[in-house]
Design goal:
The chain is an all-alpha fold. The chain has 6 helices and no strands.
């Protein structure tokens, strides 16, 4: 029960921080960057378009895949936390997408992925709208994840059940 409540609080803090400040959550933001760059490296042999898409896709798919893993392990609290992380990753990508026309965001090197993609697709004018829509989807996932965890916490507390893994006892 304590673990589920703690993860609910952590997920709410992550989602709240990221969506209210438009800044990375301290730990997951750095992990997202590493996963993003790894996605690029792994996609080099697949052509330029896939290479430029792979960073953003990897950063969203990694926590989502982990959520899937824990779903099959029946660890609902971990699923909720990982979906909250997925939501913050989606927001990070949304900000990056919306930045394509101006390219104000600092990069660690190379070309702005979404500027390159939207330039090739003649869609730079749509970047802000697409980024806003992607950010909205991330927000909805974040709210759903925190709601899911809140429900799990309430159910655990009200029924007096003990979760399978008790990390905080």
């Amino acid at each position: 029960m304590r673990r589920t409540i703690a993860l609910t609080i952590l997920a709410a803090a992550m989602v709240g921080w990221v969506f209210l400040t438009n800044r990375d959550f301290p730990v997951t933001g750095l992990v997202d960057l590493g996963i993003h760059e790894l996605g690029h490296m792994l996609a080099i042999p697949l052509g330029q378009t896939v290479h430029f898409l792979a960073g953003s896709l990897a950063q969203i798919c990694a926590p989502a895949a982990l959520a899937g893993y824990f779903w099959f392990r029946r660890d609902k609290a971990a699923v909720g936390l990982l979906l909250a992380w997925t939501a913050t990753s989606i927001n990070d990508v949304a900000i990056y997408i919306a930045d394509a026309p101006t390219r104000y965001l600092p990069l660690i090197g190379g070309t702005h992925d979404w500027w390159w993609l939207f330039s090739r697709w003649d869609m730079l004018d749509a970047a802000r709208g697409i980024g806003g829509f992607v950010g909205f989807l991330g927000l909805m996932l974040g709210v759903a994840a925190v709601g899911w965890l809140g429900h799990q916490s309430w159910t655990s507390w009200s029924e007096g059940r003990q979760p399978v893994f008790m990390l905080l006892d």
